[in-house]
Write a structure and sequence with these properties.
The structure holds two protein chains of two kinds. Chain A is built from 19 helices and one strand. Chain A is mostly helical. By secondary structure, chain B is an all-alpha fold. Chain B is about 65% helix and about 0% strand. Chain B starts with a helix and ends in a 12-residue tail after the last helix. Mean pLDDT of chain B is about 75; it is low at about 1-120. The chains are: A mainly alpha, B mainly alpha. At the A-B interface, helix 2, strand 1, helix 3, helix 4 and helix 6 of A face helix 4, strand 1, helix 5, helix 6 and helix 7 of B. Strand 1 (about 70-75) of chain A pairs antiparallel with strand 1 (about 130-135) of chain B.
Chain lengths: ~375, ~450
């Protein structure tokens, strides 16, 4: 019985084996035909299976995204621009940044004429920003950094645009490159719109800070722009001076800042006083003497405070005697002088550190 | 001061930008290449058969038929292979989408042949030629639409696929989108950590990096998960990325600091130790009112590590807090490192960092002793110059003594003295003046 069953099984196995051998034999002779006949079947079967979509119980497709979402496609500027506009209306901030960058990169490869017409008619600030960035990027790729011809689309738009928001967008784009026309910022800082002036300040300060005070032209340009702004926007003028390092500026430029100590506007006088704290070693003595005079003649306490700060910054430990000599000029500021003298005793060698120590002492005394 | 830390942080991470520039070979382009190859074979054998049968003048038609049939079979089978391969590779590479449990798939790589950007002027100017993506708007809306964890999963899927892509813009977008989708949802942040824990392959774990910027990752629960991953995961990249994500914490508790310190001291896992040091330092910069706790731990690591690079990094990080100068305890420990650490490089960094200690007299004493006890020229130079950073013009007598002991410093002493005599009062301007006079010795990382 058992033997019978075993025989049957072995017979079955043999039959299977025979079929297999036949198949193998056939496939050896007609390999390509078999492959050609079976694999397409398998392939199409699989395709059909995939196109069925997920079954119930499996993960559902998410969102309205097609199955080939994010497949690489050739970049076309018109499509990108329209996508970018849509994204600005309803896309996530991340998508807005992404598409803005894509527009800038793709548009940078356009011709100058194309860019000019794109820049000339764009009305959306964020799209204009991307196109302006493209124009700058293009000039950089061509290694014509700050070249007026390459940046002409932006200069044209600036000259004709009436909307201050859009003018500010174009000005900000110049912040990524060099000033294309000498004196551009000096005239732009007198723009009636505060947005435009703000964009100029940002560019001026960023450029100067990037040079770490090493570049004379940046430092002197910052002074020239601050002087140009003194009537239309003295506050902004003061803010420029507070935020730049002018140690490389030449004597006549330092003199212009010293003159601003006599301005009518308090914020401007304060800014000039703080800005003088970075003058170069050759100017230090002269500036200290004028500051001492101004301290006595100044009527505004906040400006006097700034003068004291600049005296310390220029003299560190050496300023102790000058500070002591000013005691009593304004009795309300004697406490301030005491705090500076205490801070100087801590023998700090770096300005940030000294200023922090002073502020800590002032805070401890409730000043 | 150089921020070695920043450089260190970049070390060990592949530079994908360079890979892109070099046009790295893309294994996923293989099926397509094979298909093209198949077509080529057909064409050549077809032409070959044509000439040979023409020479015979016999049954050219039947031969041609046979060849064409065989070739179409080959093409068909290659195509089918392609479908099969893509089906089985789909979970790893996302070549085709719907058969995988996740519904987004991202065809990657540079298979797409784009036309060259227009060449303006000379041909050497290369304009950026980014890769655009189909339906990105729909994708963007889709991942922001459904329940938090559902769309997070789909985002993570695409993320895994895109990590191996050279499309830096897309990767940046996905990272930022992930931060937006996670937002303040702690469960979502935990889901990201979870997906990384179970992920296979180097590329699928980089979304962890994005967590550094997600507000939800700053909760104790998420921090705990990240710490556990940093401590226990077998994959060093995952440990490092978990530590990097922890840099987003606004502060660290004593317990968390102790655990990070233990990682920092781990001699067997240097990459984890380095990442841990950077994390402690970065969080200290934000939590500077409690800087002493962090400095203490960093110096613990510096003292017990036998990897000099990590010790130097820990010492430098301990000086990264911007506010208060070192008190006596930290100064004494730094002095000890400066006097007795076996590595001159570590001692040099200690010379840099100790300069900002509160008690400048004590610092000058340590400098003098360390100068005398070491023969290493670079260490001596660092001590010499940082004595001015510590005490300004008051360091001139010490510097003179040191220069008399070692005549190589006589000229430097004269230079510094001349600068102070010219009226310069602060270290920044003294140093600017000194470097403008020409090459300086030992222009190493600790300069």
């Amino acid at each position: 019985m058992v033997r019978q069953i075993e025989e049957e099984i072995s017979m079955k196995e043999k039959r299977h084996l025979n079929v297999l051998i036949h198949l193998l034999h056939f496939s050896q002779r007609r390999g390509w035909i078999i492959l050609g006949a079976t694999l397409p079947l398998l392939g199409f079967g699989l395709l059909w299976y995939m196109l069925q979509g997920p079954r119930v119980g499996e993960t559902q497709p998410i969102g309205k995204v097609g199955q080939d979402a994010l497949r690489p496609v050739p970049c076309e500027l018109p499509t990108l621009l329209s996508d970018f506009r849509d994204a600005l209306r309803e896309g996530s901030p991340a998508l807005q940044r992404y598409l803005g960058e894509m527009v800038a990169q793709v548009a940078a490869a356009s011709s100058l004429d194309e860019l000019r017409s794109l820049v000339a008619r764009e009305q959306d600030p964020q799209v204009l920003e991307a196109l302006a960035r493209a124009t700058v990027l293009r000039s950089h790729v061509l290694e014509r950094i700050g070249d007026a011809t390459e940046l002409q689309p932006l200069l044209d738009r600036l000259a004709t645009e009436g909307n201050p928001v859009l003018r500010a967008v174009v000005v900000r784009a110049f912040g990524e490159t060099l000033e294309p026309v000498g004196g551009l910022y000096t005239s732009l800082i007198q723009d009636p719109a505060p947005e435009v002036r703000e964009a100029v300040v940002a560019n001026i300060v960023a450029a100067e800070q990037m040079s770490y005070g090493q570049d004379q032209s940046f430092a002197e340009r910052a002074i020239a722009v601050a002087v140009a702004a003194k009537n239309i926007d003295p506050q902004t003028s003061g803010r420029i001076l507070e935020n730049v390092d002018i140690r490389t500026a030449r004597t006549n430029f330092v003199t212009q800042v010293l003159d601003l100590l006599l301005a009518d506007n308090v914020a401007l006088r304060k800014g000039a006083a703080i800005g003088l704290g970075t003058v170069g070693i050759a100017e230090t003595q002269r500036v200290l003497e004028i500051l001492a005079t101004r301290y006595r003649e100044e009527t505004e306490r906040s400006v006097r405070k700034s003068i004291l700060q600049t005296m310390v910054r220029l003299g560190f430990a050496n300023s102790a005697s000058l500070l002591s000599s000013l005691r009593g000029v304004d009795s309300a500021l004697d406490a301030e002088i005491e705090i500076w003298l205490l801070a100087l005793q801590l023998n700090r060698q770096e300005w940030e550190s000294l200023l922090q120590e002073k502020e800590k002492l002032a805070k401890a005394r409730g000043l | 001061m150089n921020h070695i830390a920043l450089k260190e942080q970049r070390k060990g991470f592949p530079n994908r930008f360079l890979a892109e520039k070099r046009g790295k070979w893309n294994p996923r382009a293989l099926p397509l290449a094979r298909m093209r190859e198949g077509a080529k074979i057909c064409l050549t054998s077809h032409e070959g058969s044509k000439s040979s049968s023409a020479a015979k003048g016999g049954s050219m038609r039947s031969l041609l038929k046979k060849r064409l049939f065989s070739c179409s079979c080959r093409l068909l089978s290659t195509f089918s292979l392609l479908v099969l391969v893509s089906h089985f590779l789909a979970p790893q590479y996302g070549v085709l989408a719907d058969s995988t449990p996740n519904s987004f798939a991202l065809p990657l790589g540079n298979e797409l042949i784009t036309t060259d950007p227009p060449i303006l002027g000379e041909p050497e100017f290369i304009f950026p030629s980014p890769t655009c993506r189909a339906d990105i708007k729909q994708f963007d809306a889709g991942v922001g639409q459904l329940g938090m964890l559902g769309d997070l999963q789909s985002l993570l899927t695409v993320f895994k696929q895109s990590s191996s892509s050279d499309d830096l813009q897309l990767r940046k977008y996905l990272q930022e989108r992930l931060v937006e989708v996670v937002g303040t949802d702690q469960n979502a942040a935990l889901a990201v950590v979870e997906s990384v824990e179970t992920a296979q392959g180097a590329e699928s774990i980089e979304q962890l990096e994005a967590l550094e910027n997600a507000p939800a990752a700053r909760t104790p629960q998420v921090a705990e998960r990240l710490l556990i991953m940093a401590e226990q995961d077998v994959d060093p990249r995952r440990r490092v990325l978990a530590l990097k994500a922890l840099q987003g914490q606004p502060s660290l508790t004593e317990t968390q600091l102790d655990r990070l310190t233990a990682l920092g001291k781990d001699k067997a896992r240097p990459e984890t130790a380095r990442a841990s040091v950077i994390t402690i330092g970065r969080v200290m910069e934000k939590d500077f009112t409690h800087f002493e706790h962090y400095v203490e731990r960093l110096l613990d690591i510096a003292e017990s590590q036998n990897d000099d690079d990590i010790s130097a990094l820990a010492v430098e990080m301990s000086g990264m807090h911007s506010d208060p100068p070192f008190g006596d305890v930290s100064r004494n420990r730094l002095a000890n490192i400066l006097l007795s650490h076996p590595s001159a490089g570590v001692r040099s960094v200690a010379a840099l960092v100790i300069a900002t200690a509160r008690d400048t007299e004590a610092v000058l004493k340590v400098y003098q002793q360390a100068f005398q006890e070491s023969n290493d020229f670079c260490l001596r130079w660092h001590i010499f110059k940082f004595s001015f950073r510590a005490a300004g013009a008051k360091a001139l007598p010490l510097a003179e003594t040191l220069a008399q002991q070692d005549s190589r410093f006589l000229q430097h002493y004269a230079d510094f003295k001349a600068l102070y005599d010219s009226g310069i009062v602060d270290w920044e301007h003294i140093w600017l003046g000194k470097i403008s006079q020409g090459e300086l010795p030992c222009d190493g990382p600790s300069d």
